[in-house]
Task: structure prediction
Amino acid sequence: MNRTRAAFVIARRDFTATVLSKTFFFFLLGPLFPLLLGSVFGGIGARVASQTAQPVVAVVMNPQEYAALAQARHRLADAAGEDSVVRLAFYAKETDADAQVKRLLQSSHPPIRAVLTGWFGDPKLIGDVRFDSAVERQLQLMLRSSLVPEFPAPKIDVVRTAPAAGSMARDRATTAQLGQMFLFFLTILLAGMLLSQMIEEKSNKIIEVIAAAVPIDAMFLGKLFAMLGACLLGLLVWGSVGVGAAAFLSGGHLGAIPAPAVGWPGFFTLGVIYFSMNYLLLGALFLGIGAQASTAREVQILSMPVTFAQVLIFGLAAVAVGAPNTPGAIAGAIFPLSSPLVMLARAAEEPELWTHGLALAWQVLWVGIILAVGAHLFRRRILQSGPAGGFWRRRKAS
Amino acid sequence: MLRQASAPSWSSEFAVEAKDLVKDFGEKRAVDGVSLTVPAGTIFGLLGPNGAGKTTALRMLLGIIDPSSGERCVLGHTRPLEAASSIGYLPEERGLYPSMTAREAIAFLGALRGMPLSAARRGADTLFEENGLSDWAKKPIRTLSKGMAQTVQLLGTLVHDPRLIILDEPFSGLDPMNQGKLERIIRNRAADGVTVIFSTHVIAHAERLCERIAIIAAGKVAFEGRVDEARSRLRQIVRLRTRESEGPWRSALPQSARSENGEWIFELPDSGPEPLLKALMDGGAGIESLSIERPGLHEAFVAIAGAAAAEAMGDPELGE
Result:
């Protein structure tokens, strides 16, 4: 049986065992919990904020003055946004003005922050308002707009052009950074699982049967691709839910992230490919490290340094954002473990595609090298296969 | 400078050949120059006390580990994994995925040996039917008893119809009924021309099943050959019961003769039975019974393995 087929047999078993387990359901739900909690608490927060964030000012003036003031507020809100402008509520004057002000300031429906009394010639604002606050300045604008006659303004003739090079580079750097961070967080969340992939086989002794039937590197390859498959399935689910939720929440208008240099379809495709490569590269390393551990406790202890190593790699890759052709960025693209992160950022900033073909071939080569070294170490150190002692010891002995 | 060893020549009549296999684990030499030849189609027993190096030798033959030095050829392949699809292996420490059903576990083991999964599943169904175990098929491994799981793993060892079956301590953990079943399976497969190698430290199984054996002690092959050859290594044992307890006939007995329950037991002298009989009769022993027995494999094993272990430890008395 050749290595590919052997790897496929292992991958099929591991993928099926992972995806069909009850825990995979919780794995799929995992990232949705923060989203769910975020939306629930966000909704509550938004409701609370809508009641408290924009203060309500009670206007106790004559109705004509209030109407002029309301018109002025409408014009201001039209330009600055409804949520940015102080809200007004009209109240007719009562005979005991002081008592009315006192009562209004105690109102929680609506939550009145201040009361504007008097008339346009002598307005007075009473309430919890800081000196020169936005509330005071906005009311000042409204009063001025109410008093000064409105003249029709000429329509501005807008001439639209392609984004300036400088502005486009800055925008694309933003996309590069976002893409890189997304890739980093996905990998840090998912690749760590590979540290413990060999624990089951070693603890239930089936490793002996597998090692007698297929090459160890084929087993490593199968395990790596099985977990990649499970993660891609997870990403498909999370991606679908995420895009659906975002489209629902934004009413079909997704946020305007600057378009990457290779275009959105190309960037998305490269994103999936670079996620896979990043997962395979780090996963091959983690699988090799984890395979050396003999207990789950050892694997847990290894998790922290491995996470810090990933953060360091991210730091190296982040150098490339905004400067894709600098020596630092090229070094990051050549160093195998940071290469996918750097190249995804490059896809956002540089339109040419041949560099990606080259980088992918380089990354595939390194996946093979890391896997082969991991499998070799597993055979030598865990199975204790081959001549005793290291290379130098054997050389000395000969 | 590394010396290039001349490539050994391998014979097609042997399913397994090993030449001077050595395995060191750090400073400890677990296997020390083991050479074996297992003729195709035979049942071959690897006997030895615990820690003798049997499992390590089998793991090298299977290609799980590479030897520190030495060569092996399994079914015509010097790299045993190349012949993996023709080999079935039951390790000493049994292992299956607990969440798999018995049927899927067998199918997985078949697929590992190169079978298409669908064919391996059909093979599992056939094996369950043949052994009257069809109701086990859908049970998860974790719900099976140790003996049942061991049986499932044995079926997984056979599902791909291997030409060579290697069983490491296959009888341990099985009740007598299942031990009998396993013996039948081994005989049936051997009758179909399959080579079976199994390791054991229970001599009775080897005595009943094996055509050839190798006795490993302290990492070395102390004996390799037929069972009767191993037994013939020891002198025949004389058991003598006499009416007279003392008399001139006593001088006819060798000095090593011992008395157990009124019976004298000693090795037949080099001169043979006739001079002994004559001396006993002339000395007035009053022979009540006299038997000359060939020692069993157990005695041969104890003597051969003990001597080898003693030699390895540099203590000749231990072997006696």
Observations:
- The first strand of chain B starts at residue 14 and ends at 25.
- The interface with chain A takes residues 1-3, 24-26, 59, 62-66, 68-69, 81, 84-85, 87, 89, 91, 93-100, 108-109, 111-114, 117, 153 of chain B (CB under 8 Å).
- Chain B has two domains: 14-226, 235-293.
- The CA atoms of residues 201 and 269 of chain B lie 31 Å apart.
